[in-house]
Give the backbone structure.
Amino acid sequence: MPLGSLRKAMLHTVNKSPFETTALQSCLAHVSKGDAVLLIEDGVFGALKGTVASGDVWSRRVDVSFFVLAPDAAARGLTKDRLIDGIGMIDYGGFVDLVAKYKASQAWL
Amino acid sequence: MTTEPAKAPAAKPAPKAPKKFLYVNRKAPYGTIYALESLEVVLIGAAFDQQVSLAFLDDGVFQLIKGQDTKGIGMKGFANTYRALGDYGVTKLYVENESLNARGLTLQDLQAITFEDEKDGFKEKPSIIPVTRAELAKVMSEQDVILSF
Amino acid sequence: MKFAILVNEGPYTHQASDTAYQFTKAAIEKGHEIYRVFFYHDGVNNGTRLTVPPQDDRNIQKNWSELAAAHKLDLVVCIAAAQRRGILDEGEAKRHGKGEGAANIAPGFRISGLGQLIEMGIESDRLVVFGD
């Protein structure tokens, strides 16, 4: 979909669990098609399969690219098979690349 | 142990075209310091001639409720500061309708914040711009720098 | 690209400072320039020289001080937030009559105004926020 002249695809970061705060929910309510969402720190729990929050992420995968900061998932004992299928696993270098790729980033704290 | 002060950086390069700065407010006032300290950034930032706007969504809308009386909690109230924003050239305060509705609030619950439009005979105009979630998403997508606190 | 980093939380209590540090290191490794790292709210507490964390875990203040020394980073602690939370350099300690030896700013950090945050937003290509 072509972007409007002023609109730029954005990177959103979410660092809190969807069971603790509404940050992920609010983020997903404000993303635009073509944006990326990176789950970091406790936000990686938003990528777990089979939770009451999984549908929020799963339903937006058509419009929005989802990523998980792999070191944060590993730290919390979340192996890839426990996460929503197809979610991108990246390291800090990948995080840097995402920030460079998207015109602006927004932290949903 | 003596500490070596870090050196200040060299002179700045030539000024750039103004950037769109959006300050995102999603937290209630007083329970945490984010509302107050983000406002302090806005006030300092006003001197830099950028295109500044503020977004109030989620619990951030609570920052604008009128009639805040902080005497009992022993904290200095800062609600008045929002009304000064117009004097600092900060005239766009986006308030999300869905966030208000979810909290049982209407615009009438918020304090009146206005600015004098120097491009229109200094007429007093509202700084609060009610927006839908979709409209706010669009505003966010147009920003160069987004500051969250 | 020029990156500007905003750290809104203090050491240990939140992961923000750790994540910001790992990100900053990775950005440097990829050849990007770090325009400034700005510490706000409780983030100013990353800049105290007085922490004595357990030896078997990372030393967050030292991480930042050493990264700054190795790569000539500009680590800025907001003066207003620092005054509230008790992070002082020699000048501030003297100005506020806090007594001999009160200055506690860590090596590689400097205290400055909020203008430095706005300026880094203006001058950098990307500004990333790490908070709670």
Observations:
- The domain at 10-108 of chain A is CATH 3.40.1260.10 (Hypothetical Protein Ychn; Chain: A,).
